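Our preliminary data section would be incomplete without showing what the modeling component actually yields. Below, a chain of 175 amino acids is followed by its predicted structure, encoded as tokens that our downstream tools consume directly.
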Amino acid sequence: MVPLKDVQGRVYKFKSRSQCLGLGMPTLDVTDVVRSHMVLVLDIVPRKLDYVKVMTITSTRKNHGEYVPISPTPKKGFAIQLRLRTYLEGHHRDAARLIPILRKHSYLKIDSSYEVPIQMSVEGLDYLSNPLMIWPKHQGGLGELRDHVRRRDLTRKKEKLYCTTDDPSEEEDGV
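Predicted structure:
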């Protein structure tokens, strides 16, 4: 079983299909487009041994999606911005403060997530081969991301409920 603290908030890449098949792993129900992106692990999937919930990291935004920028991408126009860190930065106070960077403009696509076996992925590393992750707490961290997604989902539920109870197709009787 995968310990939560070892994967949560970390950046991963998918192994190739041939590597997975060579290791005897089943193929994913994930498109090749998603497989080509790095992903951020949000959580472990309950009742599914060694499965994690991930969201994709992309360098392009589409009009029909919801995104959160990853620093150094500007936060302007977004509610939150994620900040990356390396393992050393979080665990050794003396470590040189090297800010890990993905592409110039990187975004986490938050309107879709995937449940995948952790064995089908490899940790994303910075240019010094340190694992990439977001802060577990603090501004720009995993806690703030979870709160943002939770609030967004709650707002969507309320809007959906409001739309179904205020259905204009029902006509009122004029009494």
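The chain has a mean pLDDT of 81. The two ends are 65 Å apart (CA to CA). Preliminary results of this kind motivate Aim 1 of the renewal.
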